[in-house]
Design brief:
It is built from three helices and 16 strands. By secondary structure, it is an alpha/beta fold. Helix 2 runs parallel beside helix 3. The protein is globular.
Length: 226
């Protein structure tokens, strides 16, 4: 997936979950933060960031925060990017087949899943989670408790009994990652739900992504530690 109108800036502060103050070309601008996670290890005063500009009068701010540098690693922070990148990857045969039919935001039961696919007689329900938390080359999810994430995992497990193939895909929004695991410390209940989903037959998949200031592309499979 590609962005347009990307500018480099410097992170100043984050007054709340939804906005950040960014210095761009010597001027402080208010940017919309599209990732409502904590991201405390990323949004450090002085960090290099990349922002997207919109020339419109219909928004409260004309800037979106897209990516941030953590030392030498560029991390995409756009919460909408994983679904877009994974959608392109699925359509291109990422799961080993070209879908006969692919639909995003598919409502089934009491949940809305990110993707529904058909391939021959197979029917797939897929949930995508973006990952921005990393420690020593290991990616972890979540960075804050997520009851919604648990609900999706439980739903994927349940729908296997109805004949669906299911997958939880963790799109790691950076490269240079050697493994992925649940963040047991932050949300032990999610870690337990992930373990239960795995043993129920849900495909637990993780991939790193190639990140540039104006793009994000799903790249290589990463070892999953349950």
């Amino acid at each position: 997936m590609k962005y347009e109108n990307i500018y480099e800036g410097r992170f100043i502060s984050r007054p709340n979950r939804f906005i950040a103050h960014i210095e761009i070309n010597g001027k402080t601008e208010i940017c919309h933060v599209k990732n409502t996670g904590r991201c405390k290890e990323l949004l450090i005063p002085g960090a290099t960031v990349y922002v997207q500009h919109f020339n419109t009068s219909t928004r409260k701010t004309n800037w979106d925060l897209i990516a941030v540098k953590k030392k030498d690693t560029l991390i995409n922070m756009d919460s909408a990017a994983p679904n877009k990148a994974v959608g392109e990857w699925l359509a291109g045969g990422g799961l080993g087949f070209i879908p006969d039919y692919q639909k995003a935001e598919y409502k089934y039961g009491d949940s809305r899943f990110d993707f529904y696919l058909e391939h021959g007689e197979e029917k797939w329900l897929i949930e995508v989670k973006g990952v921005t938390l990393e420690e020593n080359g290991m990616a972890m999810f979540p960075d804050a408790p997520t009851e919604r994430g648990i609900k999706h995992l439980n739903g994927l497990s349940h729908h296997i009994k109805e004949g669906f193939h299911t997958a939880a895909i963790f799109a790691i929004q950076m490269d240079g990652i050697h493994s992925f695991t649940a963040n047991h410390k932050t949300h032990p209940e999610f870690a337990e739900a992930l373990k239960n989903a795995f043993y129920s037959g849900v495909n637990i998949l993780a991939y790193d992504c190639h990140i540039t200031p104006d793009s994000m592309t799903v790249r290589n499979p990463v070892k999953v530690i349950i």
